[in-house]
Amino acid sequence: MDQVRIFALGGLDENGKNMTVLEINDVIFVVEAGMKFPESDQLGVEFIIPDFQYLIDNKDRIGGIFITHAHDDVAAALPYLLKQIDAPVYTGNLTANIIHERLKKEGIKRSKIHRLKRVSRQKINGIEVRTFPMTHSFPDNFGIAFGSSQGYIVYTGEYIVDYDMLKDEYLCDLNELSEIGKKGVLCLMSESQAVERDGHSAPNHRITNLIEPVFERSNSRIIVSCYTDSLFRVMEIIDLAKKHQRKIYFHDKDLRDLLKHLEQVKYYQVPKEMELTDKTFHNDMEDVMVVISGSGKNLFRKLSNIANKEDAKISFRTSDNIIIASPVVSGTELDYNNMENNIYREGGKLITLDSKKALSMHPSSEDLKMMMYLFRPKYYIPVKGEYRHLYMNANLAMKVGYGADRILVLDNGQAAVFENKILTSVSERIELEDTLIDGKENWDVTGVVLKDREVLSTDGVMIVGVGVNFKNKEIINGPDVQTRGLIYLKDADYIIKEVGNMMEECIIAAVKEKRYDNLAVRAEARDKITKYLMKETGKRPMVLPVILEINL
What we know:
Oligomer: single chain
Structural class: alpha/beta
Low-confidence stretches: 441-450
Number of strands: 25
Helix content: 25-40%
Strand content: 15-25%
Largest sheet: 8 strands, mixed
Number of helices: 15
Strand order of the largest sheet: 7-6-5-3-2-1-20-21
């Protein structure tokens, strides 16, 4: 009988960075490759991706990488993975187009992208793989069932149950799910982010009725913020502009490019006669809707720039109606608060959607129960969410009749092993470290680097420069002392003079005692100056002594 092993390289006890690994005998399947935004103390980090080392070490066994849709939390890390391993990618038609473009930008040419229908069956390395359609905020979304002699291993992906959804690219086929359940499911992995909500997510994921009153009563410009990849919500907003005969201006190129992908696969068409370009849009227009889009904290920073009149395309006006249709996500709270303050400071009208009325398109408790009912798994694994979400999802399973021995709340790297349809072990752990992406590439943003950034952001920096004769080490110029973010120089002449004296004394003493070494003297001076500054200012800045040896 097949041996089954399941573990996550990301996505457990955190929001984002989703990556689940399934091993059936010797074949590895990777499901999703996402990123997450950094915490507020991870200064300068753009985003965080999973630790790929296990996959790199076992790259010859990888049968495929499955991307359920194109949201950043499940797909943005894929280019970084494919730079290190060559493995086939399986995904939907729209997502395939988007991934192809992302890989092209990163200069990745060798990867093979296989386009799957939302309902499909195929054999990959001798393993049956089925996809089934699920409704989410991104079209072409699907879940996956991997066949084994122990039963199917099912990964639902992200979803809601919406009986009013009739568009093929969003439609969920409950019959397909039920059929898989009837054939026998060993294990069901279902997301947990919205488990604390009662009832179903639908129809409260729709925002039209919440924001249409703004369109009805307003004669002035409307500005709407929305995350770029929340396409279902973006289309609702565009449809409202069409209904109320407003021109549409897309502030950001990324969203317009994404809408072009929708147009190419004939899922949605933005009316050309209603759209304004950079050339036809101007800031005094009234009967227009401006869509501001982006991801994470960058979206709220764009709105702050507009409020502060620092945006190149659009300037804030007090008559503007600003609708925030982009909920706060983990890691963006500070930027959201700054944005609110900046808009209110300028006398803006801010309409913020109540998160209890405008629900994200993730499964609430009744949606999760329906998946348990349709698939009837032997074991249940909550995935995707902070630990409290995983815990609440596990409790929900217990309420519908699952015993504690049938529910697995795992940590990232903790492997669940199944043999003969029985869980045999959860003791094995893979050691993982987050990969922090700083700019376009990973420049080893370790804890030391982050600590340095924290010091710079709080206590500032002091640079002490001295020039010495290369031959006899005699001081020939300096010391020159510069500070940033530490003290106001005009009020602290005595500190500057004393720091310079300390630097000179360290050099002179080392030369006299015949122990001069550039690095050693700099380290000695750094320690003495740091202690002195702590005593005088109560701060511990980054101290950078520089000894420039000049060959005269």
